[in-house]
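Reviewer 2 asked us to include a model.

Predict the structure of this chain.
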Amino acid sequence: MSPLVQVERRDDGVAVLRLDNPKVNALSMELLRQLQSAAEELTSDPPGAVVVTGGDRVFAAGADISEFGGPKEAERIGGSFLSALNAVADIPRAAIAAVSGVALGGGCELALACDFRIASTRARFGQPEILLGIIPGGGGTQRLPRLVGPAWAKDMIFSGRQVGAEEALRIGLVDEVVEPDALHDRAIERAAEFAKGAVLAQGLAKRAIDRGLDITLNGGLDLEQHLFVEVFTSDDARAGVTSFLANGPGKAEFHGR
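Predicted model (structure tokens):
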């Protein structure tokens, strides 16, 4: 059987993680298992940055409804979503979702698990679980309000409506909107810019931001101080400080160590 999740590591330091489950990239249990495995590999051996993408017409249409059942199945499916999308969120590098077409339910939640979202003009986002009489189970009730605020999140989740690319940009759900034929190149370009930088420090900053949002301000400040000290043990920090003193800002070369 062909893999449902493909990872391509490029020479520019970018890894492209692509969903490939025709026709609509349904997030089946097997796809989620492969997604978690791919994300864990990108964590243990991180690239410079990651682009997460799907098909031209469908980023991901959500869970495989044929696998739904009662509470036992819901517990199993919800646990798989939680593990897989948390693994994506925990990749210690910048992760960019390149969304063309629909990103619904679990597909929207996958995009939310990334650090940035670039959408094509034909992209549509939504959490339509309410139309089945259920609620999001892959992080939508938690990551969406943290990104767009509780009122917009409730509007989308209570109604199940789909949000077009321009509205998504306006409410802060996406960071950039481009024409469909420019989406791939723009996502790669943005990721390659991150990959050329101090990627180890980016990963620690990502951890400070993401984990800091889940604790008190004082706890977050303590976490920042801990990671601030940790980053000074790296070769990149020594190279960056040395280069700044010798040549001024913006001249350092980093190697992710």
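The first strand starts at residue 5 and ends at 9. The chain has a mean pLDDT of 94. We have added this to the supplementary material.
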